[in-house]
Amino acid sequence: MAVSNNLIAILNFIALMCSIPIISAGIWLAAKQDNQCINWLRFPVIFIGIIFFLVTLSGFVGAYWNKQGLLAFFLFSMAFLIVTLIILLVLAFVVARPSGSYDVQGRGYKDYRLSGYSDWLRNHVTNSDNWNSIRDCISDSKVCPKLNQKYASAEQFYAAHLSPIQSGCCKPLTVCGYQYMNPTTWVNPMNPVSDADCSIWNNEPNQLCYNCDSCKAGLLGNVRKEWKKANVIVIIAVVVLIWVYLIACCAYKNAQTEDLFSRYKQGWT
């Protein structure tokens, strides 16, 4: 096997390893409680990671057994997948950049407003066609009842660093002025007309603020937070893959040159 093919095989093995963190990031995202409630957000990263794995595997086989057709397929497919991942990262950055969170004085947690997120996220995740099933999924997850077991007093709860879903769905907005009884029971709002969500809050365990805009905002806050973490892994993998691809292109070109020279030499002799 030519030296260039040896190099391509090594590079493909590195690229093969790069597909593992991409798949792992996708599995981590799919396993998150909020993403389980948004089916179409669960599997894109896993799917792309598996495709990367198969493509780089074909490149490794092509290099090891000197299959020029497989190598050409690998280089073409890898270029397409790298461009696809870059587009996905750019879109994720653009749509997830705005944040609907804001600080609340005297609280460890933040409150969330739906208008703070991008139109694309609001229209595709929390529209009326999707929200009923998402709301039921969040309710069934028992994320709110678990707070009653964790926080015994108002002081503990007010100092808690709640997740966006916990803050948006499990309690009323702070501006409403509800009096704390326990994490999921609040009474006597002082400012019931300060926000439309104030009148939607309900102490019933299957109601709470699941119909509130703040709950939708909290869901988007969780999605945004988790995708930003996953994006870091994907960015690192893409940078490595680009370098691997560029070196592999040079090695493939050298391999073709060596093969052409070898044939010319055999024909000459």
Protein structure class: mainly alpha
- Share of helix among residues? 55-70%
- Average pLDDT value? 81
* Sequence of strands across the biggest β-sheet: 1-2
Main sheet record: 2 strands, antiparallel
If helices are DSSP runs of H or I spanning 4 or more residues, what is the number of helices?
10
- Tally the beta strands: 4
How far is the first residue's CA from the last residue's CA? 22 Å
Strand content: under 5%
Order of helices and strands: HHHHEEHHHHHEEH
Overall 3D form:
elongated
Oligomer: single chain
Query: Low-confidence parts, pLDDT < 50 over ≥5 residues?
Result: none
Radius of gyration: 26 Å
Keywords: Membrane, Transmembrane, Transmembrane helix
InterPro entries: TET_plant (IPR044991), Tetraspanin/Peripherin (IPR018499)
Family: Belongs to the tetraspanin (TM4SF) family.
Subcellular location: Membrane
Structural commentary:
The chain crosses the membrane at residues 6-31, 43-65, 71-96, 230-248. It holds the Pfam family Tetraspanin. This is Tetraspanin-2. With 269 residues, the chain is mainly alpha-helical. The chain is 65% helix and 5% strand. It is built from 10 helices and 4 strands. It has helices at 3-31, 33-36, 44-64, 68-96, 119-125, 128-140, 145-150, 154-158, 164-169, 213-268; strands spanning 101-103, 110-112, 179-182, 185-187. A two-stranded antiparallel ribbon has the order 1-2. A two-stranded antiparallel sheet has the order 3-4. β1 and β2 (110-112) form a beta hairpin. α1 packs antiparallel against α3 (44-64), α1 runs antiparallel to α10 and α3 (44-64) packs antiparallel against α4 (68-96). It is elongated.
